[in-house]
Amino acid sequence: MTVIRLSTSLFLSLLLAACGGGGGGDSSSSIGSAEAEMPGGLSAQAELGRQIFQDRSLSGSGRMACATCHDPAFGHASPFATPVVFGGPNLDQSGLRNAPSLRYLRYNTAFQFAADGTPTGGFFWDGRANSLHEQAREPFLNPSEMANSDVAGVVAKLAAASYAPQFRAVFGDGIFASPDAAFDRMTFALERFQLEAPEFAPFSSKYDAFLAGRATLTAQEMNGLALFNRTDKGNCAGCHSSTRPANAPGPLFTDFTYDNLGVPRNAGIAANNDPAFNDLGLCGPTRTELAGRTDLCGAFKVPSLRNVALRKHFFHNGAFDSLQQVIRFYVRRDTDPQLWYGVDALGTVTPYDDLPPSMRANVNTTEVPYNRRPGEAPALTDSEIADVAAFLGTLTDGYAP
Fold first, then answer.
1. Running DSSP on this structure, what letter comes out for residue 319?
2. Does 255 fall in a domain?
3. Residue 269 and residue 99: Cα distance in Å, rounded?
């Protein structure tokens, strides 16, 4: 399901490192002498990462931790009713994008163009970070998230934390003398936590149990799976493969590529109050090296669909708030554009209204189910949409027969 890639799926071949939101990485530098496994089965570094992940004192407000936006109860995705999180020193600064899930990112890679030209890998919705280690840095310094003024400010808070003696024991007595070194080890610890903790890749859904012969899908769920896979119906598996790749113990339901879906503009995001503003994804201001690739404008990361039924908001801009609404958008985006987009001064529906007119041709309109025209039948009926949603519900971790 992506207009910018040339192959329908790309499976990863290497298991790479990851932190605060990425994988792959730069974790080869010195990590100190403490390597003992902690009681919870984590390394000393990962145990520190667990504490850092939950520590609200490391934010400018003193009320926001990594876990605030990546709540385990929601598959390590956003628990908020709003489409984007509000952060900053007073928790009143609107973010730009929906906080994505951190689960299963340990199987991701650094950003790269595959041999066929397909953009793949990278962390965040625009792939700007190349590892979980690298991704973990940004929220601490983002003015609309944890809102620390600089690295030294973060490290001063870290040095005052209850686990600071443990941090020194792992990374050296003098670690806090260099804020840059301490911040690097802090984000490395977050990476180790996400790489090691089973909660970030449990493969414990009903679908996993079904694949193992320990559960039976209902007739509706089975039909939803068939529709999910069928290239003439949902074609969801084109990007969200339901089969196991070589590097993971179960299906990941993402190929870590990018797609341009023409998602409607979301008036609930403060930045969108400016009609001249557009979130351009891969060619946006955080991807200056891709600024000339206007063909990539509007493309965002294909997320894993594991735990998707727990989401409160969907897509990079949180434009939708129900799973069935999302599936309906996929299959009726172009058959019934008036359902999703506003009208211009002449009363004409304006499809793909979150992109500048010059970039709307980038939207995927060739692959099933996007290859429909106004007045044509959508690829899925309402009952089939319900079946696909039922199947997606089997991807929620923590299944108990």
1. -
2. yes
3. 13
Q: 49-64 b/e with 16+ CB inside 10 Å = b?
A: bbebbebeebbbbeeb
Distance CA 159, CA 71 (A): 25
Q: How many domains does the chain have?
A: 1
User: Nearest 5°: phi and psi at 87?
Assistant: -130, -145
- Residue 315 DSSP class: T
CA distance 23 to 348: 44
pTM: 0.89
In a domain? residue 272: yes
Sorted by sequence, the CB contacts under 8 Å of residue 235 that are 6+ apart come out as 1, 367, 368, 369, 379
Count of Cβ atoms closer than 10 Å to residue 400 Cβ: 6
Phi first, then psi: what are they for 300, rounded to 5°?
Answer: -130, 160
CA distance 244 to 209: 14
Cβ–Cβ under 8 Å, residues 45 and 196? no
Name the token pair of 96.
């730009």
301 located within any domain: yes
Q: Using one digit for the tens of pLDDT, what is the confidence trace for 167-213?
A: 999 999 999 999 999 999 999 999 999 999 999 999 999 999 999 99
- Enumerate the β-bridge partners of residue 136: none
Structure tokens at 47: 């145990």
In whole angstroms, what is the distance from residue 208 CA to residue 140 CA?
A: 35
Residues counted in the chain:
401
Six-digit token string for 119: 């953009």
The residue segments making up the domain with residue 214 are: 206-395
